[in-house]
Amino acid sequence: MEIEKVAKLIIKNFPRDHKEKDPFKVLITTVLSQRSKDENTEIAAENLFNKYKTPFELSKAKEKDIYELIKPAGLYRQKAKRIIEISKIIVEKYSGIVPDSLEELLKLPGVGRKTANIVLYVSFSKPALAVDTHVHRISNRLGWVNTKTPEETEFKLMEILPKNLWGPINGSMVEFGKKVCKPVSPNCKICPISKYCKWEGKR
DNA sequence: AAAACGGGGGC
DNA sequence: GCCCCAGTTTT
């Protein structure tokens, strides 16, 4: 199947390694990463975990206590509120253990399909597709799907991609999307999978 | 379906 | 000055 071959090429050429596996840290970092660039997310996460290391500690913090720490990631008032609420729920309802099911993760404030699936893959090594704007755009450009919404793309991709590629393709598509297959003026000249691409706008 | 949330960096 | 960024929730 050609799709599988191309997916593996993307994964090989645009690796994204997740050093941190701790479910709580991955969960909080991923919430911080929403609509934020990686560099700023990392600064915010480092600031935060430097002071609050566990859900137990963070659940006792006040929102205003962490504004300055997470400000680099943006949307900081919302995120502060949600992060502390998440910590309280993890402590009170789950005894400090982050749940490992999509259904339970989606109940947490500020956790949608993308965030939940990233946690499932990165921390729990489960097959999970996090379809963000990059994955959505690139899947359509390649001609793998013909969809309007990311959720539609998610279900289509689950049909055409083998499960063992669900996790790895997420991060690799993001890197691919940032470096080469950009939203505007993509760099098709240096694209390693250009010959498999059906996008009409390609140059 | 659209608005709101937001600092930081690229242009 | 304007626009975007591993989105989600509220209106």
From TrEMBL:
Residues binding [4Fe-4S] cluster, per UniProt: C181, C188, C191, C197
One example of a Gene Ontology biological process annotation: nucleotide-excision repair
Transmembrane segments: none
A matching Pfam family: HHH
InterPro entries per record: DNA_glycosylase (IPR011257), HhH-GPD_domain (IPR003265), HhH_base_excis_C (IPR023170), HhH_motif (IPR000445), Nth (IPR005759)
Gene3D superfamilies to which the protein is assigned, alphabetical: Helix-hairpin-Helix base-excision DNA repair enzymes (C-terminal), Hypothetical protein, domain 2
Ranges of residues in domain HhH-GPD: 32-179
EC category: lyase
Molecular functions (GO terms): 4 iron, 4 sulfur cluster binding; class I DNA-(apurinic or apyrimidinic site) endonuclease activity; DNA binding; metal ion binding; oxidized pyrimidine nucleobase lesion DNA N-glycosylase activity
Free-text cofactor note: Binds 1 [4Fe-4S] cluster.
Catalytic activity entry: 2'-deoxyribonucleotide-(2'-deoxyribose 5'-phosphate)-2'-deoxyribonucleotide-DNA = a 3'-end 2'-deoxyribonucleotide-(2,3-dehydro-2,3-deoxyribose 5'-phosphate)-DNA + a 5'-end 5'-phospho-2'-deoxyribonucleoside-DNA + H(+)
Cofactors that this protein relies on: [4Fe-4S] cluster
Highest taxon in the source lineage: Bacteria
Its EC number(s): 4.2.99.18
Keyword entries, A-Z: 4Fe-4S, DNA damage, DNA repair, DNA-binding, Endonuclease, Glycosidase, Hydrolase, Iron, Iron-sulfur, Lyase, Metal-binding, Nuclease
Family designation: Belongs to the Nth/MutY family.
Cited function: DNA repair enzyme that has both DNA N-glycosylase activity and AP-lyase activity. The DNA N-glycosylase activity releases various damaged pyrimidines from DNA by cleaving the N-glycosidic bond, leaving an AP (apurinic/apyrimidinic) site. The AP-lyase activity cleaves the phosphodiester bond 3' to the AP site by a beta-elimination, leaving a 3'-terminal unsaturated sugar and a product with a terminal 5'-phosphate.
Protein's UniProt name: Endonuclease III
Gene expressing this chain: nth
